[in-house]
Amino acid sequence: MSPSFGRGAMTNSWQDMGNSQCFLIAGSNCAENHPISMKWINRARAKGAKMIVVDPRFTRTAAQADVYAQIRPGTDIAYLGAMINYYIENKLYDEFYVLNFTNALLKVSKDYKFEDGLFSGFNPETKKYDYSTWAYQLDADNKPIKATSLDDPDCVFQKLKEHFSRYTFDVAAEISGIPADKIKLIADTFAENRPGSILYALGMTQHTTAVQGIRCYAIIQLLLGNIGKAGGGVQALRGEPNVQGSTDMANLIANLPGYLPYPTNAEVTLHDYAVRYGAVQHKPLVALLKAWFGKNATAENDYGYGWLPKNDPTNMPTQVEFFNWMDKGQFKMLFNWGSNSTVSIPDRKMVLRGLSKLEMLVVADVFEIETAQFWREPGVDPKSIQTEVIFLPAAFVYEKAGSMTNSSRLVQWKEKALEPLNGCWPDLDMIDRIFIKMRELLAGSTDPKDEPILKANWDYDDGHGEASPLKVLQELNGYNDNTGQLTASLGEYLNAPIGTVSTGCWIYAGVTPPGKNLADRRNNTDPTGLGLHQEYAYAWPGNIRVLYNRASCDANGQPVDPERKLIWWDAASGTWTGNDNPDVADKTKGPDTPEGKMAFRMTPEGVGRLFAASYTSGVPTSPVPADSIAAIPTRGAGMTVDGPLPEFYEPIESPTTNKLHPNVQNNPCAKIVSTEFGDPEEYPYVLTTYGVCEHFCAGGITRNIPYLNEIMPEPFAEISKNLAKKIGVKDGDKVEISSMRGKVVVRALVTDRLQTLNVNGKETETIGMPWSWGFASLNPGPSTNTVTMAALDPGAGTPEYKCCLVNARRA
Amino acid sequence: MTKRMVFVDTSLCTGCKACSVACKAWNDLPAEKNQLITSYQAQASTTHNTWTYISMHEKYENGKMEWLMFKHQCYHCAEPSCMKACPAEAIYQTDSGYTIIDQNKCIGCGYCVANCPWGVPKTDPELKKTFKCTGCIDRVENGLLPACVATCQPGALHFGEPEEMKQIAEVRLAEVKKDFPKAQLYGDKAMGGTTYLYLLKEEPAFYGLPENPTTSASLVVWKDWVQPYGIWLIPIALGASAVSFVTTRIINSMSKSKGGDIHG
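ok -> structure tokens follow
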């Protein structure tokens, strides 16, 4: 979403779903995995909203749908491409919106090409693209040249039209297995009922084409004018109460907190970083360094920039690849918090190999999860493993205070309900104690690599010898040197001169102004009835509840939807105002100014990006004077590494040939980690994996809760009646599911909820398996990730859990 | 407390089973060891430790899939046959409409189990006591929602005054009927009217439910006639059986070739 809209976050909120006229739920099984969503979806349905569900299985969400389509796993881009094509061909797009709030009119470089499955700039050796031809035609001021009409052959809109013209309903039907008339029904239903909201989760992201699938959603919503509006948007449903929070705190390899680009070894000095990324990233990085190194961060020492380890862009391993690096001896020690990799990593035998090579493994968890006792797995010889394993019993969620940030970007504070039992500690206290002890041990060291630890600003003591979570949130909020106080608002941070404010995560600036904790607000009033709840907790950035809400207004700055008014331009007071906090660059700049027209202020073009062009706005002075780097007025675009437009590629293991370009079967940039792959002759069925309502992720907690084991006692394989007949299996029999990587035996559920699909003229079977079980806990069961494969999306690094090839036979 | 009602809108139930967990948590009931019976369902019936559960029903017709959910628990009938059947007078009704087993009086004889048209109450063989949903009477009479209603996220469970519940039910029925012509309310006409009123998308038999739940005829005869008027009935019964003895012999001798089932 960041390359499309400028921010990598869900655009609307849970409550806002109540405002929708239509839901396209594809890649999400929200009734099972986000049960709270149904509360708001059902409120919208009570007012007549339609619900479309596209899924490889008829799920408990599908059971609620008005329109359901069974899709072959991994082929979403085919039918979504057909929807885009249909909207363009039949002029079903919102013309005012497309002209004013997207890059449709901007002219694309004449060097940009797409031929036989590849975009221009591909290097087959590195399996990477050079983005330089995915550019705009620029004027003398470095601004993209704007076409006068959507018919200009060079403009983004025409490139989009040409690219997706190959995606007819019939082609999409052959690829995806969804009948052509059903795809048309989906397209019509979603276009006729606006505002429409798209919900997705891991069903869309766990593919080697993950990012491009979400790009399709962004393009559809920009064409239909559904972004920035109440009841519209693209909703990334986060799988855990604080996933948005952990992403904000930089759990992505190429980020620092607040989505700052992580410095690479090419940016040796702060000056290099500022030149590369512009003032827009330079200022928050300085504020971050001030938060981390406190008084030790000064203008003279580049605010401690040299203490930050730098990334090597040629080697950026994500979590899955870590285990291969462990296996190669790259790591001596692993701290494992909140993750049960032995169950959750695809092709999981590499986890065992990796952990076995460590000198020490520390696992902090509520229960003794599989990862904490990986050497005890049946079939493993503990004598052959030298890894020392230390288990730290952790406090449960109700035994600790702190903030959590949910899918709605809502930072919510909670207090501790109970004292931790039996000597368990909150994670924060463990980290605090380990750090303090480490610093004690390193005291007096002159080794440069110890400097960051010795110079760090580390003071979270609550006065009673325990770490204070509030002090952490206040560090994220940041302090203003001039007042010596906590920064009072996002505006105060933005207006302060560089180097005079600190913030541990600039998008959280304003959450704890002096004497207050806005995350702790519980005023539930909602005077507009639009679910904006402005006085409840705090949504980043700047308490905006619907991102890009400027796009909900017309050319005069007035709401286009009188029923769902978010913001408007108040000419009398000369400000943007409204029911939500206006998402505008400057609240005093009216709709007739360039700033006041801008609906997507976080992209360098200021508009939504149908075409993810490589572009950096502003004109850097050349050469950049060393003493005025703060003034570099540039902003770079978020990029999609595998193409400026989405393209359909088959999953890495696929039962068929790519219908669009047989010579480029898979995503050419995909990162392949597994070493064993099967072919459809031997492994003819498509396996898709998922969670169930009754268990949470790798089951580390839920498989130890008797009530949940009672209602979902065991893993299973769901198969169609056709397949059951073919392999001689009855409902309830045990069945062996095998791939090139391994095999498991589970109970078979024979059901009509999975049907045999017709794909490229051939009958294709889908098998569904939940993945939440492991060999330990109160309720052990085989781990599905024995079978899955590690092939990753090149941009996000998500593994293709959602499709691989398997065989099935009666066990 | 005046009468209360729970409206179970099965058309909105997503089968998440949170109601079953919430029930066990509030009532402090232990978990049971299960295995999957059919797609996603592991609880087969109410037990003395499981007072509410969801059954799941699949139907595939003309290329259209349906997956319907049904929440089972005590219906809290206006004319409960369990109460009628109980020889220990352990079962009573509250003004709010709930049917409650007084555990101090219950002797675990199982008459209520046999006589509930839905087979809801279950006897604990060790404790020799019978258990079932209490309607969360302890919560309701203290101003709280029943545990299952309080936890239901999709809004499939509603709690309130009977008139209000019936109104909501009628509105939902009209809406659901547009797509499901067999949709109907269930419980309002059974057993004098149940406290748990249902909206079904299909006919009751699809969910394995009795179409017209009634108190068994033998229980009515026994409890409403034999017990109150027992003294008078003994000579009449004796006379009747003498007549029966004679007539049966005559009928048998007349139609020896005829056989088949005779049901009550």
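The CA atoms of residues 569 and 576 of chain A lie 4 Å apart.
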